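Entry type: protein chain
Record version: 2
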Amino acid sequence: MGNVFISYRRDDAAGYARAIYEELTERFSPERVFMDVDAIEPGLPFDEVIRDAVGQCEVLLVLIGARWLAPRPEGGTRLDDERDFVRIEIAAALARKIRVIPVLLDGTPMPKEAELPEPLRGLAWRNAIELSNTRFNADVNRLVEVLAKVLGEAARPAPVAGAPAAAASASAARASPAPSPPPPAAAQAEPPSRAAAHPAGSRTRLAVIGGAVVLVLAAAIVALWPAPPAVDPSAASNANMPNVPGAKMPKVTSGNMPPPSAPALPAYGVVFGSDRTLAAARDEIDRAAAQGVKDAGVYFRNGYFASIAAAASQTEADRILGIVRAFGTDPYAARMETWCRQPQARDGYVECAATATKQ
């Protein structure tokens, strides 16, 4: 069985690369998806490292965005540089005659043969798949179907988001038992006219009034009574333990207190940064705030700190996407209940469960 290699440029498709990587590791074995080989140790020949990594794969995904063919100041494009990582990756895959799939992002046209250097000309003849933010789930599902055939591994089903509130309410209503029938007429309270005609009615009213007076006096005494001094919870809990000579009394500490509640997630999030360090993610948020992006936070998942702007609706997420696209690298919108599972509050960020477990 083969593996998948994701080829992309950081300043062109970093957001999409991260989103695709996370989707593929949800659907296939995580160790079979490769990304970010540019973290090459000092002293190693990067061209050989890249060729070795591509050599372990059966599929190369070439993510092509609007800046993939951006010109260089000195002329030509980065693909004209024989040391360009993307050029080395594609050339190695074409030379091995493995499946090379161009992934065209947000309507980016397929590069023409004349725009590519000689070792990459074969890319222009490969059938591409389109992927956009508005059809992301459907487009990724089509990509997964192709990869499942090539890799010879059945893909896991896509995660299902939570049911809408209206549907959940309807399900709860169907599952709830039928209401109990009303009590028989004999058990219901007597109407006021019959209570007034009862021989003991006067005595009953006097008893009720007297009881009410007693309750009012009791409430006043409780309100005026001085509050007890504050008691340390650990001391109070240990004070209730039996006094056994020589016994070690357990202490009530934060370690055995119930865990805090999970942080509330927004309905949608716009992922506009993905960094290895928390400091870098906070810098991303500061730059976004200067451009008018508010309510952004840092979320940690799969070894990356993601900078995410909160949005209450899909419409709000689309508005934020329009802002961050001016300075970000391929942002995308996501349903946060699916993107961040089992959220846990940390110091300065929210940690989310990994998107998949190794098989």
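Comment: The chain is about 35% helix and 15% strand.
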